Structure formats: structure tokens, C-alpha cells
Amino acid sequence: MISVLQRVAEARVDIDGQTVGAIGAGLLVLLCAERGDTEAQADKLLAKILKLRIFSDDDRKMNRSVQDVNGGLLIVSQFTLAADTSSGNRPGFANAAPPDEGRRLYALFVEKARAAHPLVQTGQFAADMQVHLVNDGPVTIPMRMAPD
Fold first, then answer.
1. 80 is catalytic
2. What pLDDT band is residue 147 in, cutting at 50, 70 and 90?
3. Looking at 80, 124, 130, 140, which residue is catalytic?
4. Helix-helix angle 99-116:39-51, to 10 degrees
5. How many CA atoms lie within 13 A of 53 on its CB side?
6. Into which CATH architecture does domain 2-144 fall?
7. Tens of pLDDT along 42-90?
8. How far is CA 66 from the centre of its chain?
9. In DSSP terms, which residues pair with 26 in a beta bridge?
10. Is-catalytic flag, 78?
11. What do you get for the CA distance between the two ends of the chain, in Å?
């Protein structure tokens, strides 16, 4: 699984002019399932995201996790993270999980996030979304959870 984390002061997802998910300070999690990804990878990625120390402590060092600061999670599916740009000028997406498998892994990830963290909002899988954010820092962290 691939994710891009953005530490945000605030973020929201709109669909057709309606806000479907919004958080204050926390993490915007752009999430992509790739072909062959497993539930175990989703579990490991979520655990890593929840414990990743990218929020400032009192000495302004990145030493606190989203859980430590009681921040929100806004989880947005984004298959384009699997883009292959190695040839030509049009990205290929053959590495992305098929839609049914991507939807299943995204839903599983969200379900487990909601069980482990008190403030979780989402976008909508396969929707045309507008994502609005104020990147705090800016801090943007790409993550890939490889199979065991």
C-alpha cells in the first residue's frame, strides 16, 4: 500500500459542492491499494501512521504522533499514487489494485482506523473529489508498506 501523509492545520473533502469529510489539525492520508496488497499491509501501514512522530513537541521538535496531539485523520482514496511514469507522457495505472479490491482494502483501512482513533473522516471511494487543505509546516511524508 502507498500513502502520502500531509500534516495539516485543517483539511476537507468536497463532492459536488458538499463537504463530506473535514478535520482540524491532524493528518490528511492519501491512500492507494496496489495489486497484491493484503490486509496485513493495511494493518501495518495504519499502525505506522498512528505512531509516526511528525507533530511538534514543546521544544518544536517533531516528536509527537497524531494520537499524542489528538489530531484528526482525513482518509482519502487516491489510486493515482500507483502511477507509472517510467515511459511516455501519460501515466499508467496497471499497478493499482482493481476497483473492487481497492474499495475493499480502503474500507478495511477506514474501519480499522475508526476502531483505533477517535476522529476519522473520509472522502468517497472512486468519487470526483476536491480536497482542500492547509499543509502545516509544510510536512509531507510518502510511505509504502511492502509485503512481508
1. yes
2. confident
3. 80
4. 40
5. 7
6. 3-Layer(bba) Sandwich (3.50)
7. 999 999 999 999 999 999 999 999 999 999 999 999 999 999 999 999 9
8. 13
9. 8, 72
10. yes
11. 12
Rounded CA separation 70/17 (Å): 28
Is 109 in the active site? no
DSSP for residue 98: P
Beta bridge partners of 15: 18
Cell of 65: 504522533
Which entry of 41, 55, 79, 122 is annotated as an active-site residue? 79
Which residue in this structure is represented by grid cell 494520537? 67
Active-site residue (options: 78, 109, 121, 122): 78
Sequence spans of domains, the chain:
2-144
Tens of pLDDT along 87-146? 999 999 999 999 999 999 999 999 999 999 999 999 999 999 999 999 999 999 999 998
Cell numbers for 18, please give them. 458538499
Angle at 80 between CA 74 and CA 127, to 5 degrees: 60
Q: What angle do CA 21, 33, 94 make, to 5 degrees?
A: 125
Q: What residues are paired with 121 via a beta bridge?
A: 74
Other Cβ atoms closer than 10 A to 137: 13
CB contact burial 38-67 (16+ within 10 A = b; e otherwise): eeebbebbbeebbebebbbeeeeeeebbbb
